[in-house]
Amino acid sequence: MSINVRYFASLREHMGKADDRLEADLAKTVGEVWACVSKDMDMPANTLCAINMEYVDAGHVVKDGDEVAFFPPVTGG
Prior knowledge:
Elements: E1 2-7, H1 10-15, E2 19-23, H2 30-37, E3 48-51, E4 54-56, E5 67-71
Parallel strand pairs: 1-5
Antiparallel strand pairs: 1-2, 3-4, 3-5
C-alpha cells in the first residue's frame, strides 16, 4: 500500500530526484505527503499540487494508490 510522489522542474532539482514512494499510512493529506518526503522542509511558496493529474490544495486527502505531484508555479511571457 503506497502513494507515488512525483516532482517536476525546479522541485525535481530541489529534491534531488524525480519521484518517491511513500507508505499510504504515513500521510493523510497532500501537505503531510510533502512533510514526509521533504523531511519537514517547508513547501516552497506557490507550489502547485495534484492528485492523479487533477490540481488540489495541500489539505486534500490522499489514499492508497494515488499519485501525488508537486510543481513549481508556471509563468509565461
